Amino acid sequence: MTNTTHATHTPGAPGTARPGIDRLERLMGLMTGDEKHSTAATSTLDALWVLYDRVLRVSPGTVEAPERDRFLLSKGHGPMAYYAVLAEKGFVPEEWLSGFGGYTSPLGHHPDRTLVPGVEIGSGSLGHGLPLAVGTALGLRAQGLTEPRVWVLIGDAELDEGSNHEALAYAGPAGLEQLHTLVIDNSSASLGWPGGIASRFEAAGWSAATVDGRDHEALHAAFTAPHPGRPRAVVARVEPKR
């Protein structure tokens, strides 16, 4: 039995409900100097907002709490949307945004976990986030912490990296139910996968769904669907990268 559901319309089609995005776009507008990665930033905006606004159990006051949910941003280039969400939710001051990318700013062109409250990993080379998320889920299991959930956001092109294939191949048979992978699919992968990205995860024993990456209700339903005994993958389809 398959758990894959497919988007039925073009991502971001007129009529798609996107509450709160106007505020985030204003915050993103305060950050300049990384225009070449603006598409990478906006591709993640809706999925990040739904996660932080409606799903993740973490707040500015619980960033060190053992019981918190962990969010790992593997797709770290173009982090303006991530910073906007963190500012909107009170993890970082809005005043930091205008200094984005500056020499003295804590907000770099890749998030730094030692400088930005709420950031779990420092990103850089693509392909590291999912293996780190697998290790995080295993660590929580070893400590007997069964409530925290681990989320990792990756880009579809990261699935060209062998490290991710090894990680997802391991996680399914290991039954890492706490692990959730969000794949932003903007058709930038060089290799792809027959039958679509979700089928790759399903073949490795994951629960998987494909949804419109601009539809907040579809994203929320996919993020919160039960998947007992298996890790979960949500593929969020957005406009193709140009």
Could you write a compact summary of the structure shown?
This protein is an alpha/beta fold and 242 residues long.
Layout of SSEs?
Elements (H helix, E strand, L loop, with lengths): L20 H8 L9 H18 L14 E4 L6 H9 L40 H14 L7 E6 L6 H10 L7 E7 L11 H7 L3 E6 L3 H9 L7 E6 L5
Parallel strand pairs: 1-2, 2-3, 3-5, 4-5
Helix pairs in contact: 1-3, 2-3, 2-7, 4-5
Notes on the structure:
The structure is a single chain. This protein is α/β, with parallel strands linked by helices. Helix content is 31%, strand content 12%. The chain is built from seven helices and five strands. A five-stranded parallel sheet has the order 1-2-3-5-4, sandwiched between helices. Strand 4, helix 7 and strand 5 form a beta-alpha-beta unit. Helix 1 packs across helix 3, helix 2 crosses helix 7 and helix 4 packs parallel to helix 5. It is globular, with a radius of gyration of 17 Å. The N terminus is likely disordered.
What overall geometry do the principal axes of the alpha carbons give? Answer: globular
In the sheet with the most strands, the strands line up as: 1-2-3-5-4
Distance separating the two termini: 36 Å
Number of strands: 5
Task: Encode the helix/strand succession as letters.
Answer: HHEHHEHEHEHE
Counted by DSSP, the helix tally is 7
The amount of helix comes to 25-40%
Gyration radius, rounded: 17 Å
Poorly predicted runs are 1-10
Biggest sheet statistics: 5 strands, parallel
Which structural class do you get from the secondary structure elements? alpha/beta
Roughly what fraction of the amino acids lie in strands?
5-15%
Arithmetic mean of pLDDT: 89
